[in-house]
């Protein structure tokens, strides 16, 4: 059962400021998600391996070679704020 | 006062020196203008897909085998999710529940005793970007971000809480560095951040089997800082307990200038990384054949080499340990003894004058101005009596400074030892005539006076007289 306190905690981790109304809404939504998993849990999975990957791919390697970098202007093209070569962001402590 | 036992575990991050990053083709070169060693993948742009660099896996296995680990057959990567701008994609790709390697160990030596330190795990992950702050970090409202380092391959090596003192922690890190340098997978430069170390520290009443509450210490940027920070933290914790307080589980940062550890903003709650398997990377099934092949390609490691030096060259264990601490110094030693059959003499010069000069000049062994065959040529001059032991030290310094052969220096500076009886006799007689008091003392049984007279003769010959001959001639005339 997810409480508003859990939502507060997750909001801090995600650096989101939520209003009281939003908290109420997300508490309900997150509980709905959990409930959905409860119904999935009713399935018998005894003979099913835990699966993290759905494709039968294994060992996809690349060789250790240096390729082209993107230009500084391209790298910084979409950033809302910059300082010379750097991305500039609000300080997070 | 209660007796306390210190419990330390180290978490070490080592950057692997592959050419390209772990999941993309950007260069791993150190430095560079900010945000110029980047591509779509390491900038975490939407849709860009990571692909693992095969050399990273190979290097990580290489390091793991050298540290006596078992290599897992099945490997996958996980996303460690967190919101901090050092990774633009809001997660770091790492290995969480299934590390590449488990159950490793290292032997460390302290005061002549060998101790086995368990190493819990070794896994692969990507390094993060760097945040730079202009002006004071406390007042500036901004962080500047450089993603050049984001995606540089790392291995994280986590020890068991087997270390019982800051000195043991120091020895462990030193040995770990030595072994990894031997494998050649990293340059392990603490000052460039290619070797980084955090520590978990706790204390408990001696004899207790339960662990005390631990703190995590960060920001130790040198071997010296590690030892100082740990010593400080142990003392701090004991003080808190002695005053009836309790230790708070927290992350603390080492303040090098003040020489203390400081609590960082409490992050207990932030350790909620919502790990999930990285869906963009296919799992790795490590072939046993490959592991065996890497094992066969490993060089002789410090412990084996040390044992061989004691066995084959008859060196004291201490000499063998110092010489094998770096591959370069051991290679240098072996090049010398291949050409000169007195290993102990070679060892003495390498451990003594050579190491001192290398250190004083900040010179790497590989750039040593004295080549092994030049060192052994000088030892031959010494052995033949062409130069005295005292003069040899002068010659050696000059060799280091100029790179010239010993023989050339001896000739240029007229440093050949005087072994001509006639020449020394006249000086001996002069010294006896000038120092009647010492002569009298000697005849009265004060053997120390002889040393003084020998010294006077050596002084008069600028250290070039053959000391044995001087002794003999003086005694004859007294």
Q: What is shown here, in short?
A:
The complex is a heterodimer of chains A (93) and B (478). Chain A has 93 residues and is mostly helical.
Give your account of this protein's structure.
The complex is a heterodimer of chains A (93) and B (478). With 93 residues, chain A is mainly alpha-helical. Helix content of chain A is 40%, strand content 10%. Chain A is built from 3 helices and 3 strands, in the order ααβαββ. Chain A has a two-stranded antiparallel sheet. In chain A, α1 (4-13) crosses α2 (20-41). The longest helix of chain A is centred in the N-terminal third of the chain and has 22 residues, at 20-41. With 478 residues, chain B is α+β, with helices and mostly antiparallel strands. Chain B has 3 domains: 4-293, no CATH class; 298-413, no CATH class; 421-477, Arc Repressor Mutant, subunit A, CATH 1.10.10.410. In chain B, β14 (251-255) and β15 (260-263) form a beta hairpin. The longest helix of chain B is centred in the middle third of the chain and has 20 residues, at 223-242. The termini of chain B are far apart. The mean pLDDT of chain B is 91. At the A-B interface, α1, β1, α3 and β3 of A face β2, α1, β10 and β17 of B. β3 (86-90) of chain A pairs antiparallel with β10 of chain B, so a sheet runs across the interface.
* Beta-strand content of chain A: 5-15%
| Beginning-to-end CA distance, first to last residue of chain B | 65 Å
Question: What is Rg of chain B?
Answer: 29 Å
How would you sum up the global shape of chain B?
A: elongated
Helix content of chain A: 25-40%
Average pLDDT of chain A works out at: 91
Class from helix and strand fractions of chain B: alpha+beta
Overall mean pLDDT of chain B: 91
Number of separate helices of chain A: 3
Q: How much strand of chain B?
A: 15-25%
- Low-confidence stretches of chain A at least 5 residues in length (pLDDT < 50)? none
State the total count of DSSP E strands of chain A: 3
For the report, how would you describe the main beta sheet of chain B?
9 strands, mixed
The name of the CATH topology of the domain at 4-41 in chain A is Histone, subunit A
